[in-house]
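Example record

The entry below shows one chain as it appears in the dataset: sequence first, then structure tokens.
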Amino acid sequence: MKIDSSTLSALCDEFCYVTGEDKIIIFGVRGSLPLDAQKGDFDATSGFREGYETGYMKLNYTTSRCTVGLWDKENHKIALFPGSTVPSKQYLLRNKAALKTFNILSPGKYELKKGIHPREKDAYQRHEALLMDDYGLISIPEVSIAGGRLKFGLKQAQNKVMLAGDNLHASRTEPRGIFQDENQKCLAALNMHFSSSGCITIVGQPKEYVSSQQSDGPWNSWMRFQELLKKANVSKADKFSFLLFNYADFRRGRKNRDPLPIRYGASGNDVRKIQRILTTVSNIKKSSAYYSGPENGLFTEETVVSLLAFQEDFFTGKGNHPSDLSGFFRNTRHFM
């Protein structure tokens, strides 16, 4: 599957994401890695080109099986880096306190801004990163631990809108030992357990924390990402749009498509319909309408919270995802 600027533009149109005058956009593809990266050649995709071939990778929530990319929208070029967009089971086992705050960010349009990760001043290996400070739509799966293994109950996930804090940072994966060549070193980094309770990560280590045993090199995709972003960001922007996709989004055929799901950060007439309907329906628990905000067509915090509350009261409860609108519109026709 090829990812290029035209494909990304088409997906933005289909999912109703408005990117405006953004020159550089950061994006993620869940469950996919560049074909070159799968072979250990990280350098092959770490520079701007018209497009790159990627392939499906089944998520295991243990090693990096996602792609993080930079999209130079102005020059119609992209660069790709191996990483993750999901929490690490191994990290959660080592840091059980993180079980209280871990999450899986839902596909959608979000915002990242320059900052330091982790936010706490006394935290481990603080480094320059991109922070997600705004609200987002997340899933929190049920967790079970037995025999030293952690499992996610993804079908029983609870969907919430909250301050997710899913920053973009280094995965803290630094290969150790002696390797035949750079490709073997890259593969070793790719197959290490990454550090995340739900953040977006890129394979590698902040340069200031690379051990004396290892020199910076192609394996350190995090540093290549940072260097390319600084070079491409000629406008010195402090904030960037972040678009999170599933691999399946790029595999959709051009004919006989099923209706697209609506996703966090989308905008348009469908969202206005949702807002209009939720304005007319009373929430018995609060003695007021489910939605009382402006009819602005933005599928963000207040609208998504209202829709989740409505679905929980009238449809399938906490397992219902707000992106599935077919049942919502079918069962609320009398409000239109």
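Notes for this example: The mean pLDDT is 91. Residues 40 and 183 are 4 Å apart (CA to CA).
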